[in-house]
Amino acid sequence: MKTLWKVLVVFVLLGAGAYAFYAYAGSQPNSTVGRWYAHWTGHKATGFRTSPVVRQDILASISATGTVEPEETIDVGAQVAGQILRFGPDPRNPKKSIDYGTPVEKGTVLAVLDPLLYQSRVDQANANLERSRASLLQMQAKYEQASRDWDRAKELGPSRTLTPADVDLAKATFKTAEANVADARAGIIQAQANLKEAVTNLGYTVIRSPVKGVILDRRVNVGQTVVASLNAPSLFLIAKDLRRMQVWASVNEADIGNIKPGQKVGFTVDAYPNHPFVGKVAPDQPRLNASMTQNVVTYTVVVSTDNEDLKLKPYLTANLQFEIEKRLGVLAVPNSALRWRPTQVAEVAPEERDAFSASMRKKPGEKGQGAERETDRGTVWVEEDGFVRPIKVRTGLSDGAMTEITKGDLDVETNVVVGEIHQGPGQENKNPFTPQLFRGNQNKDKDKDKEQSK
């Protein structure tokens, strides 16, 4: 029995050692043991994620958000105070009153205020005008009498029947009557002006649309009292023409230098996510009144766009792309291909290892010998026989996901490395309830894969 137990212990130790060797060889593909393992088992524990080089359009743009606004809005108020009796009839259906979204013409009745007070002022002004006219007639009669008395006084002159005082009195009476006539005439003019003002105020009780447009907002109700003060109360908000819209975009200060009038802009709204809209930056943009929110400075840029189909509604949120530069049909690679580089010298093709090791020993930011570092240079890696080989390229325009390749030994459909896939032994078709050995090393490999993918 002791011999049997010894044999069992030996077999268990051999099995554990074989499993440990199996796991270590699968996790170290570029080591001697790993290559031996891959050769004899046919199991490749590590692979390279690749992406093909493509030919496509590259668009460099600036992203921003904004709000759709009518090109011109009119805030209609009341010039007099009063209670709202009724709203005007809807031009489309006279049986209904105007409301939100009602199209109106210039001069359309929007609302009617209680005219009783202003009508009484008109009647009072009419009465004052008639009184002024009657007063003028009375003053003209007195003037004629005083004129005749003055003529007789001048003809007779001072005599036994007419003293000098009587002559002076006749002259003064004539002058006073003449002035009273002029005053009465001025009173008529004043009464007429008062009447005109009263009639105008009475007309203001009928509020009419000053332009042709669409009512965006009705801010009062029937029975509500409107109080006119230094600031006219807002009753209706009218959009003059919804076929022309604007998008007020907030652009970060870091990007504002690339915004120019007439620049093409594409945008979408959440209401129509699959329908692209096109506009242009309006003249005299950007606006100079910048705003600051949480130490972030933004400028407002107005984008004009057509809205003939009336799909754009006021105050929709828009996601804009300001077109900076565009290249058509150029070679492009994913940005991750330009960021990726091997983590071990053993992954690099043997003939390239010395140069790779030398580049690894360089300090960050160190320049090459005899040449200045150029920002448009880059390196992509291609897989050959289980190793990777570098290809020097020159880069051009980037849209944030893809980068243009202007020079380099690359063709369409060439696969460039964008990351690694680490796969240890026993990870294919494994039972999730089986205890996993060496899990710590596998988790580290997964974390390394994520970092390289980024």
Q: What spatial form do the alpha-carbon principal axes imply?
A: rod-shaped
Sequence of strands across the biggest β-sheet: 2-11-15-13-12-16
The percentage of residues in β strands lies in 25-35%
SSE succession: HHEEEEEEHHEEEEEEEEEEHHEEEEH
**What do the pLDDT scores average to?**
83
Roughly what percent helix?
A: 25-40%
CATH topology of the largest domain: Elongation Factor Tu (Ef-tu), domain 3
Number of extended strands = 20
Summarize the structure in words.
- The chain is an alpha+beta fold and 454 residues long.
- It has 4 domains: 1-45 and 436-454, no CATH class; 61-69 and 240-329, Elongation Factor Tu (Ef-tu), domain 3; 72-114 and 205-239, OB fold (Dihydrolipoamide Acetyltransferase, E2P); 117-203.
- It is 32% helix and 33% strand.
- It has a 6-stranded antiparallel barrel.
- Strand 18 and strand 19 form a beta hairpin.
- Helix 1 (2-27) packs across helix 2 (32-41) and helix 3 runs antiparallel to helix 4 (164-203).
- The longest helix has 41 residues, at 116-156.
- The model is unreliable at 368-373, 425-442 and 448-454 (pLDDT under 50).
